[in-house]
Design brief:
alpha+beta; Jelly Rolls; Arc Repressor Mutant, subunit A; 6-stranded mixed sheet; 4-stranded antiparallel sheet; 10 helices; 41% helix; 22% strand; globular
Amino acid sequence: MTTLVYKAKLSGPFTLFKAGEFIGEPGWQHNLTNNKNGDYEIMVVTKGTIYLDINHTKFAVQEGDCILVPPFVTHFGFKATETTTKHYWIHFLLNTNEIEKYNKNEKFTRQHYNEIFLPQLFKISEINKIIVLTKQLLDSAEIPNNLLQCNYLLTALLIELSNQYLKNATQQATDKSSQRMEQICNWIKLHAYENITVAQVADKFNISSVYLTRLFQKYQQQSTLDYIHNEKITLSQELLLTTSKSIKEISYQLGFTNDKYFMRLFKKLTNMTPTQYRNTYTKEYVNNNTRNPDIPFTQELNHLDEI
C-alpha cells in the first residue's frame, strides 16, 4: 500500500479547530464520522493500536505512529481495540488552498523550505519531541481567548512532524560513517535512561572518544555530550508533563546521580527550571469512551471570520 503524502504552503500559521487526548478502554472503536467543516485531523498514538478505515482504506495505527485524516472523508474504527489505547487528536484548518499530493520521487530542494509535508501514515522517529509540543498545545488550548498562540504552537508541531518525516524519507546512507552515526544516535536514544558517558558510547562502537565527537560535530553539529544531554532533557520534559514523579525521581530515572546538576542542566537548555516548566503546561482536554469532545474554538473562529 502506497502512503499518500500531502504538501502544503507555509505562508502563515495554520488554525487550530479542536484538540485533546483520548483514552480508550479495550474494545473501543472509533465512531463513524466525517470532518465536514473542512478540517484535517492528525492522531498521534502513544499507547496500543487503533484500527481506522479512512475512505475504504484500512490502517492499523500503532504506538508511535501519526495518521492524517483529510476533510470530507468518512472514517471509522473497523475493529475493536484489544488493549487500552491513548492518542492525541488535533483538528486544524489549512489557511491555504495550495495543498496537493506529493510525488515522493520529486527531489527535495530549497524551494520546499516554505512547505510542510504530511504523510497519511508514518512512524514518528522522535516521539518525545512530538509529545512535548502536543502537551504545550493542549495546555494553551484550555486558556480562553488564546487562539493565536495555539495556532503558532500547532504550526510548530506540524513543522516538527514534517521535518521528522523528511529526515527519514530523504536520509540516505552515503558512506559508512553516516550509517554508523545513525546507529550511534539510535543507541543513545535507547539508553538515554541510563548513566551513559561519552567513553561508554565510544567503547560500544569500538572507536575513540575523539573520533566519536568528530562524527557528532560533522553530522549533528554538536558534541557527543551535548547530544546525550539534549536527549535526556527531552525525555525529562515528557516525564514532567505526563507523570507526577518528583524532580529528584525523574533525574535519577534518567541516570543523573545529582538532581541539582540535572536542574542546572535543564535550566541551561530550556531557560526555565523543571518546576517552572511543569507548572507552565498543566492543562489539557481529555476525553474517553463516554465523553465526546466539543468544539472549543468555534466561537473564536466565527469571531475571526467577522473581522
